[in-house]
Design a protein that fits this description.
about 375 residues, about 15% helix, seven-stranded mixed sheet, single chain, about 25% strand
Length: about 375
């Protein structure tokens, strides 16, 4: 049995994304396993904070457009996003709600809208994974060339730590096509090219924040233009082939080609699946992927380096979070909350299969997330 004690004093109108029994069973085999096995309470606290959303977010408020909801994860040891780390939410075919988190983790909603005194609980089938930094995340998405190039040009510290970054990452195939040319570039020229793919702004560029015609100022000083056409998102001429991969300090989008700082006014052509590369060059012999050797070898699991292991969970392991509500979304629709609960003494008891959650008036003394949840 795993019991986590939570100080949620004076909190109301919150949404808890509660992992079910199967999710707990998966922990030893996931990137979160080492933190739970070593009983590292600071890391576990950050993980659980990431499952708590200020505000009420009934299942019916999600639709086919991604929303990005603020969570209680605000500890700067684990996130560097203004107002706290976010979790993605979308309703897919068949009215299936899915939440996305770090390292491309997908958590499906299995039991929605369980009401309690302080808000609602959604039961999900996987733990949310707090997003990791750029270098830790790129291997998960086969973006090893970009990670190695960032390391090789001494940009790793910048992209890993600066707040509210949006990074457009060329896929490995784009690096592969220009491998010899890129590797022979002076470091300053390659750094300038990579900087044209990095946007540092006060607003993270989740797809919901990138309407058609958006102009973004890059770290290299030139602009990028966002186009939405033929149901696809484009950055200049490059097609975004994978959107909204969450990072500890922002988001990255995978693009099919390099963006050229010397051709900032080039526009998208939605009629072609992949535009011809703007940068001319040659590949390496045997068509090898460049820069991968510069990428650190141990970057595939949840980072535990910044936390101090302790022997037990404490009453404040989750903390009080924030009462403010923040959601980034392209569209919303009204929803409803449906759940049955019953009064029990001074509090309200929400009956789940093999689990009881007791919520006292104005104070949630103990949040029990038990192995037998559902």
């Amino acid at each position: 049995m795993l019991i986590v004690q939570a100080n949620l004093s004076f909190q109301s109108d919150i949404t808890i994304l509660a992992p079910n029994n199967e999710a707990f069973n998966k922990i030893p085999y996931s990137s979160l396993g080492p933190a739970f096995e070593a009983n590292q309470s600071q890391i576990v606290r950050s993980i659980l904070q990431y499952h708590i959303l200020p505000g009420l977010h009934p299942a019916g408020t999600y639709n086919g457009s991604f929303t990005f909801d603020q969570t209680w994860l605000q500890n700067t040891s684990y996130t560097n996003v203004t107002r706290g780390q976010v979790v993605g939410g979308v309703q897919q075919a068949g009215n299936v709600n899915v939440f996305t988190s770090g390292l491309g983790t997908r958590s499906t909603l299995v039991t929605p809208d369980l009401a309690f005194k302080g808000g609602i609980v959604h039961v999900i089938d996987n733990f949310l994974v707090p997003p990791q930094n750029f270098i830790q995340s790129v291997p998960q998405f086969n973006l090893t060339a970009a990670g190695g190039a960032v390391e090789n040009t001494s940009l790793a510290d910048y992209v890993n730590t600066n707040q509210d970054l949006t990074i457009f990452v060329p896929r490995n195939m784009a690096f592969q096509a220009l491998g010899e040319t890129l590797q022979s570039m002076p470091s300053s020229q390659l750094q300038r090219l990579l900087n044209y793919h990095i946007v540092n702004s006060t607003t993270v560029g989740y797809s919901s924040n990138l309407p058609n015609g958006t102009v973004l100022r890059t770290r290299s000083g030139q602009n990028l233009t966002i186009t939405f056409a033929s149901n696809s998102l484009f950055v200049n001429q490059a097609r975004v082939i994978q959107q909204d991969l969450l990072l500890s300090n922002g988001v990255m989008h995978v693009v099919d080609n390099f963006l050229d700082p010397d051709a900032p006014s080039v526009t998208a052509n939605p009629e072609v699946p992949t535009a011809a590369p703007l940068i001319r060059g040659t590949s390496l012999s045997e068509n090898l992927v460049p820069f991968t050797s510069f990428l650190p070898t141990s970057v595939t699991s949840f980072d535990t380096s910044s936390a101090v292991p302790t022997s037990s969970f404490g009453a404040n392991d989750i903390g009080q979070g924030t009462s403010a509500t923040s959601r980034t979304t392209t569209s919303r629709r009204p929803g409803s909350t449906s759940a049955s609960d019953e009064e029990n003494g001074g509090g309200r008891t929400l009956q789940l299969t093999r689990t009881t959650m007791v919520v006292n008036s104005g104070f949630l003394g103990v949040l029990c997330w038990i192995m037998g949840l559902l």
